[in-house]
């Protein structure tokens, strides 16, 4: 008997140190289906097939879940900057109902899509926000991004939003040596974590940072 999408997702998640409940597995798959269904309307992703969504979006975003649990034990608010169709924010919201996740994008219809996902999947801890990060106000304990901007631009653009004691979580491809050498003053990278995503033949890493103590 061939593996179902839920089997594949669950096995990949287990490799990443994440245990999926049935509900979480179904919500993740439903999110992938919504992304493909509405892609033409919202222009969400270059990935066009369920297998690609599984590896490039669901499993790749799930790769941030165990590191987040380890690096930041608190509860609170997470801002996913340049979230597009909600990556990795929606996946984190599904896996961490104890965290309030805001997916921010400068394009209104992408934020509207995340609002639609929150309603259809009944995720009260998820919302889509439409704004440019530089002009947003607020305070967040975790600020994440994936495929958003260079590290200096990410940190400079969101530093006013990081709560005291908060952390940045930047999902990148290859370890961005040049960007790490050009960090803004006052930003301290404390961990560069290389990742292996099941089914994805690409280098991936997370750069963790916080504000330097004054
Ligand atoms: C390459 S996409 C990445 C989307 C998603 N994070 C992912 O991994 O699939 C970058 C997103 O950043 C958004 N963006 C660009 N500049 C922005 C800004 N200043 N503030 C908020 N969003 C921005 C774009 O509209 C786009 O949706």
TrEMBL record:
S-adenosyl-L-methionine binds at residues 82, 87, 133-134, 146. It is found in: Cytoplasm. It catalyses: guanosine(527) in 16S rRNA + S-adenosyl-L-methionine = N(7)-methylguanosine(527) in 16S rRNA + S-adenosyl-L-homocysteine. It comes from the Bacteria. It holds the Pfam family GidB. GO terms for molecular function: rRNA (guanine-N7-)-methyltransferase activity. One of its GO terms (cellular component) is cytosol. Its EC number is 2.1.1.170. Keywords: Cytoplasm, Methyltransferase, rRNA processing, S-adenosyl-L-methionine, Transferase. Belongs to the methyltransferase superfamily. RNA methyltransferase RsmG family. Specifically methylates the N7 position of guanine in position 527 of 16S rRNA. NCBIfam families: rsmG_gidB (TIGR00138). This is Ribosomal RNA small subunit methyltransferase G. It comes from Variovorax boronicumulans. The lineage of its organism: Bacteria, Pseudomonadati, Pseudomonadota, Betaproteobacteria, Burkholderiales.
